[in-house]
Amino acid sequence: MRVLAFSVCFFILFWACKDPVAEPLPIPDPKLSVSKNLVDLGNISSTSKAYIKLKKDGIGRIKYTVISNKSWLIVDQKEGSLGFLSDTIKFHTDMLAKDLTEGDNTALLIVKSSINDVSMPDYQVEIKGKFTATVLQTTTPTVALGTIKNATRVKISLKKLGLEVLSYEAASDKPWAKLNKSNGTVLAQDSLEVGIDPTSLTAGAFEAKITVTPKVLGVIGKPIVVSVSGIYDDTITGTIEGHTLTKNETWTGNISLNGDIIVPKGFTLSIKPGTIIKVKKAPTPLVINILGKFVANGESSKIIEFRSSESAGTDGDWGGIVSQYDLEFSYALIKNAKVGLNFENVSLSSFGTALPSIHHVFFDNCVIGILDLKSNLESTLRNLSFRDIYFFSLKFADTKKVNIQDCEFLGDYCYIDINFSTNNSTVNITNSNFARKKFSHQTHLEVIDGFKNNTISASNCFQLILNQTLTVNGNKYLVSNSSSFANQNIGCGFMNRYPQARKKAK
C-alpha cells in the first residue's frame, strides 16, 4: 500500500512540474494581389482582348467582383471566389459602345473583394488604347470626263481607314452609268469601275451620282457620293453606213454616206452648220427617209451640202430626202438628187398643225426640187433658188394657200417650174425671177389637166410667162407690177459660191 501511494504521489508531482501547453496561434487572413495595374491594348479593334490575374496568398475565402467603368470595356467573368491560388479575369472591347471615342481611350477595371466576408479596399487597373474609326474614303470624290464621243469607263478608288472589316454596297442614280459590281469588301484598297453608255444620252452636259454605302460590324456608315460628269458630243463624222437610227444623231464635218438612212418616229437627225454630206451613187439611189424629225439649219457662212460623191455628179445620183413634214431646212445645198425634198408620202391628216420650215435653200442639178408639198394651212416658201432642175422645181398637191416669196427659178430647160396638182388653192408669187425657157413645151407655171378652181397671182416677178392652163377649168391668173429687171438680193443668197453651170435670169 505504501508503495502504491508513493507511486501516485510521484505521478502527480511529475505532471505538476511539467511545462504548461501553449494556446494555439490564430490563422492569418489570406491576401489578394492583382498581377497588373496597367494594361495597354495598343490599337483598339474588335479583336482586342487581354487579362489580369487575381492571386491569393494564404488560407481563407476571398470573394471578388470585377466591374468596368466604361461600356466599351467588357469583363468576361465579373465575379468569383478564389479557391485556389489565382483566377484569370479576361476582358474584351465593344466597338459599338458610344463612349468609345476617336483617339486615346482609358477605362478602369475595379476589383471589389471580401476576405472571410469582410469587405476590403478596391483595386483599380487602368486599361488604355487608341481607337481609330473604320471609315471609307475615296481619292476621287468627283470625276470630270470632259468631252466624250463614245462609251467611256472610269475608275473610282476606295480606301479603308481603320482595322475592322469594311463591306459596301454601290449604286448609280442613272441607268447609263453602269457599275462593274454592286458590292464588295475593302481590305485596304479597292476600286469601282463606272461605264458611261451613251446610247441613251442626249447631247450636252451629263452627270451621274455614284453612292457607296459602307458597313462595319453590321452598322451602316456614312455614304460616299461621287459625281461623274462630262459633256457628250454625239456628233458623227466620217464614213456612215446605211442604218436605222436607234437614238438621236447629229452629223458634222465631212460625211461619206454609203447607205439608206431611216429616222424612225420619235427620233431626230440633226445636221450641224458647215457639214458636207457626199452620198454614194448606187444602182438604187440612196435616200434619207425621215419618219421622225430632221433639222438641217446651216448659217450664211456655214452652208450645209448634200451632193453626190461622184466628182462629176449628175441629177439622180442619189434619191434625196423623203420627209413626213417634221423638217427644218435652211442655208443648205441639195445637189445631184432625184428629188431634193420629197413629201409624196404625206397625207393632209398626218402632218398635224406644223409645216416644214424651208428657206435659204439652193436646189441644184436635181430631177425635181420639191415634190408634192401639201398643206391645209397657209404656208410660205421663201428665199429658194432652183438651178438646172430637169422636171419640176416645185410641185404642189392638195394645197390650201401658198406664198412664194423672193425665189429664183433659173432652169432654162426645166419642164415646169411650179406645178399645181391641186384644187381650190390660192397661190401668191411675189418678188421672184424666172429664166427664159428653151422650148415652147416648157413652162413657168402650170395647173395639171383636171385640177380646178385655183387662183394664182403674181406680183413684181421677172420673166414670168402665162400658161393657158391657168385660165381654164375655173382657174384664175392675176398679174400685177411685172418687173422689167431681175430682182436683186433674192433667192438662197449664196448661189455665187457654186458657179458651175450657173444659169442666170437675163
UniProtKB/TrEMBL annotation:
InterPro entries found in the cross-reference section: BACON
Pfam families in UniProt: BACON_2
Top-level taxon of the source organism: Bacteria
Segments forming domain BACON: 32-112, 150-207
Annotated protein name in UniProt: BACON domain-containing protein
